[in-house]
Design a protein that fits this description.
single chain; alpha/beta; flat
Length: 123
C-alpha cells in the first residue's frame, strides 16, 4: 500500500479579488451605514457569517434594499440590467466585483456588440 504524505501550506488565504471584496465590505460596515448585498459577497460561509455579525445584510433581491442605503456588488459582479435597477433606487453602490470578473464582463459585452452570441457558464 502506498503511503501518502499531506503537506500543509505555510500560507493560506484568499485570491486578491475576494480579499478586496471583504475589505470593501468591512470598510463600509465600519462607517456605520446599513449595508446590503444581493446574494453572497464571496463563496465562503464562515466569512459571510462574520460579515453578517458585523452588520452586513444579505438579501435575495434588489427590491429588498431600502432607498438611500448602501449596496455592495458581490465579487461575482452583477448584470448591467441589475445595476440599472439599483441605480434607479438611489442607493450608494460599492462595486466589489473581482477585476478578473469585470474583465470577462467587458470582453463578453464587446463580443455581443460585434454580433456574437455569448454564453457564460458558472455559478
Amino acid at each position: 500500500m502506498n503511503k501518502r504524505k499531506v503537506i500543509v501550506a505555510k500560507h493560506a488565504g484568499f485570491c486578491f479579488g475576494v480579499k478586496r471584496a471583504v475589505e470593501i465590505a468591512e470598510k463600509a460596515l465600519e462607517s456605520g451605514k446599513k449595508t446590503y448585498c444581493v446574494g453572497h459577497l464571496i463563496h465562503n460561509n464562515q466569512v459571510i457569517d462574520m460579515l453578517k455579525e458585523k452588520g452586513l445584510i444579505m438579501v435575495k433581491s434588489i427590491s429588498d434594499i431600502p432607498l438611500g442605503k448602501v449596496m455592495i456588488i458581490r465579487s461575482h459582479g452583477m448584470s448591467l440590467d441589475e445595476i440599472k435597477k439599483v441605480e434607479k433606487k438611489k442607493v450608494e453602490i460599492l462595486d466589489a466585483t473581482c477585476p478578473f470578473v469585470k474583465k470577462a464582463q467587458i470582453v463578453a459585452k464587446d463580443f455581443c456588440q460585434k454580433g456574437y452570441d455569448v454564453v457564460i457558464c458558472g455559478d
